[in-house]
Amino acid sequence: MHGNNSDHISIPYSSLNIKKTFDKFDRLNLLRPNTRNNEAEIFGTVFLENFKIIVPDTKYINLKINKHDTEQFLLQEKIDDKLLKRRDLKNGPILKFSDKDEKIYEAKRIRKDKISFFEIYENANDEFIKNTDNSLITYKAIGLVNNKSLFNNYYNYKFQALISILDGCHGLSGNDPIFYYDVISNNFYHIYYDGMFFNQNNSNYFCEELRFIIDPKFKNRFINEFNEKLSRNDYKKKLKSIYNSKLIN
């Protein structure tokens, strides 16, 4: 089963984690569409990927499980070493907030901002830590999460700005942020997960209290890239074509 909240639970089948899959991925998530605001998740991931943001491949699928009626799911690629390989990225640590520790802290009413990142982050890339050297690199990455300068790059500025434009602030909050640590550049990079795009419907809200990459030196570069892409008809046609291909025909 996938997910911590009650919206993932349904009869006869809830959101599911799948291994040894029928699709091109070794592992994937089958999500109840309402847990990701339905096709907004597909549009958002397509939009982000076309800005070269690391996202899990996502599409609708009709699936019949056992003898039950066919149901609609969001099929989403698992965030692991295969996702990095698909993006031609060097295999490395993928860090996320520990769901288990989060529940413990909540039960004890311990504020998360009073806990060091080292205590509450865990590796999400099991394949990477199969040898001792890589395990040491992963522990190093967890220890470096406190160093905010390693997040201060154009990619993360662009990610947080795009998430804000798409009203996907949920992906910057709580236990949802996931980061890839690039050993070569010694930098952390956002991986998109669970933004709940277009869920707040508040045009005046821009994730202000959640965005932490606000270096003004990136602003003009982002505006230029954003305007250049959205002004091109070929780009918009490509975006529409990819989006439509991931819907159920």
Structural class: alpha+beta
Mean pLDDT: 84
- What is the overall silhouette? globular
Distance between the termini: 27 Å
Continuous helix count: 8
Rg estimate, integer Å: 18 Å
Counting DSSP E segments of at least 2 residues, the number of strands comes to: 8
- As laid out across the biggest beta sheet, the strand order is 1-2-4-3
Strand percentage lies at 15-25%
Largest sheet: 4 strands, antiparallel
Proportion in helices: 25-40%
Can you walk through the features of this model?
Helices cover 32% and strands 16% of the residues. The protein contains eight helices and eight strands. Strands 1-2-4-3 form a four-stranded antiparallel sheet. It has a four-stranded antiparallel sheet with strand order 6-5-7-8. The longest helix is centred in the middle third of the chain and has 13 residues, at 132-144.
Condensed summary:
By secondary structure, the protein is an alpha+beta fold. Helices cover 32% and strands 16% of the residues.
Features of this protein?
alpha+beta, 4-stranded antiparallel sheet, 249 residues
What is the element layout, followed by pairings?
Blueprint: E1 16-19, E2 27-31, H1 40-49, E3 58-63, E4 71-77, H2 81-86, E5 94-97, H3 99-107, H4 117-120, E6 121-123, H5 132-144, H6 154-165, E7 178-182, E8 187-191, H7 219-230, H8 233-245
Antiparallel strand pairs: 1-2, 2-4, 3-4, 5-6, 5-7, 7-8
